[in-house]
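Lecture 7 notes: from sequence to structure.

We start with a single chain of 100 residues. Read the sequence below before looking at the structure.
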Amino acid sequence: MRHLLILCFYISCLSYSLLSHANTIKTHSVIDANQFVNTDTSCWYDNKRYSEGALIQIHSFTLICGAKFVQHNNSQLIWLKLDKQGNAIYPTKPATITVN
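Now the structure, written as tokens:
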């Protein structure tokens, strides 16, 4: 009788271990590496990525993530300082071209 109980226990443990395996779901993410390398479609600050229109407060001034060239639809994004009225201050371009 004792051998029969041990045999039943052994068979039940074996069947449980064979039937209880987990199904592993393999997922593959589709990422275009060129999207992250070649385009500047985000602003970075403190190793964090921000999208266009994001605001951050640094000490006494506020920065907004905005287009580098307003007239272009697909322009690079840069951090622009905001004035007291909330308007973005764009960097000024030199009036003349110099050749060294």
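DSSP finds two helices and six strands in the chain. Keep this in mind for problem set 3.
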